User: Which sequence fits this backbone?
């Protein structure tokens, strides 16, 4: 794993996050290079979601520093606005806008926040709908699509903002088993095209095939960082070993 | 059920016609009765106009008052609570009297009967509209805000394009109920002389000395109006539900 500073696109330095008196993140640091594909795993409640939500400003950390694509994330709404448009995010529950058609879901962001014309936004939307292989669903509403299709629309919606980084928070956890593959395939293609990605997922097949770095979190800390092969075959810590035993032979 | 009420009302009228009630005052087959009936019905115009304008204004005020209630800032939330609690504490009739007789003096303006009535009704109703909108907006999943965040929408765009369209759909039945409520409350503006249904009835009672017959017609006027509006609201509701 090369950690070349010139290539660095995300720098998380010793951030902490408290919910009331409960500490969800404890001095967490993470460096991500352009094109790097990180998979984060760990037990429920270990702080995986909280960490990636801090990176796009959905949560505000209390200590430490976050720099994304050269922008220091601080209290100014200006930095937040800039970072929002550089970081895409896909949620477990899709969070599509149910009252808007697929096309309108995709064009809303570019038209309102980037002031792109409707025609250009629709062209952009079609380009990314083709990328996630559902251009024929453009005029439907989210409720008329399968879970897998909805998640692909959500991915396309993020891509329409042309982000530098994509965050995925358990994108396949809410899907029926037969739909998981179609979403993972889209994510793999995205990775092949060079997208910088941080994925919280327990899909070990995807992690082995796509990730170049595995991060294991437990109890608000990053416990282990390793290449996938080493991570899955020779984890360094007891906690990681226990976790892998659970997810590999459940 | 509602047909039954109508039958009972109709039976009363017919019974009255044959007895020694004074139904002649509103008997459309006589010239005097026809004129009186027309006089009573002419109040419909201001009852409907007042209610529609008042509900439109109160929805707008309600929306503006609801938004600070959703803020993380406790002072903004405080402003919302203050407004809602104060307005809800004032009886509508009192507000109507104050807006018509008091406000012109305080503000140094002249307000005609129509606008005084509309403003008082709208203000009074706005607190309820605000509560309805607050509940509707709060019922929208927080994932919708997060998704809006990730596509870089600002606060106003998030509300306008994502949250409010969903919230309004959900509060439509409640808004329909408020309209029905408003139609009934509008009878109170008769006290300041707005020529709506109730005022017309009062005026006719003074000239004809037939309160029983005139007020029975008044009851029927409101009954039919409200039943029609309720049915329309329910129909709209059904349509919205199947469209979703
Ligand atoms: N908004 C919140 N308020 C209070 N506590 C929270 C909040 N969000 C998260 N937490 C707590 O912070 C801890 C970390 O949560 P987080 O969602 O980051 O875990 P996770 O690793 O993503 O877990 P999962 O695999 O279940 O998604 C948990 O104990 C959780 O209960
Ligand atoms: Mg999580």
Assistant:
């Amino acid at each position: 794993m090369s950690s070349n500073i010139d290539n660095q696109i995300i720098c998380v330095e010793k951030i902490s996050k408290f919910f009331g008196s409960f500490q969800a993140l404890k001095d967490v640091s993470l460096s991500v290079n352009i094109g790097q594909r990180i998979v984060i795993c760990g037990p429920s409640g270990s702080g995986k979601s909280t960490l990636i939500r801090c990176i796009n400003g959905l949560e505000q950390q209390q200590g430490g520093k976050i720099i994304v694509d050269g922008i220091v994330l601080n209290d100014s709404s200006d930095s937040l606005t800039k970072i929002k448009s550089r970081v895409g995010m896909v949620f477990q529950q899709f969070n599509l806008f149910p009252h808007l058609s697929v096309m309108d879901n995709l064009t809303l962001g570019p038209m309102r926040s980037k002031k792109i014309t409707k025609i250009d936004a629709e062209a952009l939307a079609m380009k990314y709908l083709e990328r996630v292989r559902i251009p024929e669903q453009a005029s439907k509403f989210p409720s008329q699509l399968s879970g897998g299709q909805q998640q692909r629309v959500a991915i396309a919606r993020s891509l329409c903002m042309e982000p530098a980084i994509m965050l995925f928070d358990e994108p396949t956890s809410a899907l029926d088993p037969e739909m998981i593959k179609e979403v993972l395939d889209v994510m793999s293609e995205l990775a092949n095209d060079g997208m910088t990605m941080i994925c919280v997922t327990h899909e070990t097949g995807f992690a082995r095939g796509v990730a170049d770095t595995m991060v294991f979190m437990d109890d608000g800390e990053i416990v282990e960082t390793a290449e996938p092969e080493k991570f899955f075959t020779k984890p360094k810590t007891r906690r990681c070993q226990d976790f892998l035993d659970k997810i590999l032979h459940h | 059920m509602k047909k039954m009420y109508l039958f009972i009302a109709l039976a009363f009228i017919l019974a009255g016609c044959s007895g020694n009630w004074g139904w002649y005052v509103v008997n459309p087959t006589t010239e005097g009765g026809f004129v009186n009936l027309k006089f009573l019905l002419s109040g419909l115009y201001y009852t409907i106009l007042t209610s529609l304008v008042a509900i439109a204004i109160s929805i707008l005020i309600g929306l503006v008052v609801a938004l600070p209630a959703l803020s993380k800032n406790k002072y903004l939330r405080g402003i919302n609570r203050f407004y809602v609690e104060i307005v809800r504490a004032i009886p509508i009739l009192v507000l109507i009297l104050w807006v018509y007789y008091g406000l012109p003096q305080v503000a140094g303006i002249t307000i005609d009967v129509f606008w005084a009535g509309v403003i008082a009704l709208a203000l009074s109703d706005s607190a309820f509209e605000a509560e309805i909108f607050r509940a509707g907006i709060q019922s929208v999943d927080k994932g919708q805000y997060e998704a809006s965040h990730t596509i870089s929408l600002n606060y106003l765009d998030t509300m306008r394009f994502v949250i409010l369209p969903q919230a309004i759909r959900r509060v439509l039945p409640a808004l329909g109920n408020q309209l029905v409520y408003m139609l009934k409350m509008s009878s109170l503006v008769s006290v300041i002389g707005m020529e709506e249904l109730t005022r017309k009835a009062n005026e006719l009672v003074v000239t004809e000395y037939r309160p029983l017959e005139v007020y029975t017609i008044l009851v029927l006027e409101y009954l039919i109006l409200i039943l029609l509006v309720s049915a329309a609201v329910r129909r709209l509701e059904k349509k919205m539900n199947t469209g979703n």
Observations:
- The mean pLDDT of chain B is 90.
